[in-house]
Prior knowledge:
By secondary structure, this protein is an alpha+beta fold. Helix content is 33%, strand content 30%. A seven-stranded antiparallel sheet has the order 2-1-5-6-7-4-3. The chain is globular. The relative contact order is 0.15.
Amino acid sequence: MSHFEPPTSDVAFTPAVKRLQVERGSRGAYARLEAQGGFEAAITDDLRAFLAGQRSFFLGTASADGQPYIQHRGGPAGFLKVLDEHTLGFADFSGNRQYVSLGNLSENPKVALFLADWAHRQRIKVWGTAQVSHEPAMLERLTVRGYRAKVEQALLVTVTAWDANCPQHLPHLVPVEEVAKVLAQRDERIAELEARLRAA
Length: 200
């Protein structure tokens, strides 16, 4: 007797979602995705490279009764680390001390991560389960050297599935450091040209 393994995309495409896809005409495309196994489950080299440059993401959790909550997490580039092909981890820095995400995780381990590279208009969605760790070795592994923030705990995310979205409607935003560098080069060029004019 063969064992049926549901496609990883079922984490997002519930029966209710599939019914809407049928009603609105997009079911065929996603059925083909499912026939190929669905979303990626393992962390690939492409995802690893994408994560290495990210300084920000949004963490979605839900309470036991399903009340959703989204919180921003930020730090230096690469603070969200790949621990193995199915696990992500990050140092959870001290914030406003409401502990909504941690409270939700204590009764519902399911999480969703949303990451956007605004400059290159790319976005990644990750589904999984998370657990809190206070293990010294793990805290040491995830601590970001030179970043002045208090680490309260580590969060480890076991990845169920992940998917790269199209850039449609994603604004094109450039990091302020890159803009400042270009403006500084422009100002240097203007000063050089003005000096030439004065000397002419």
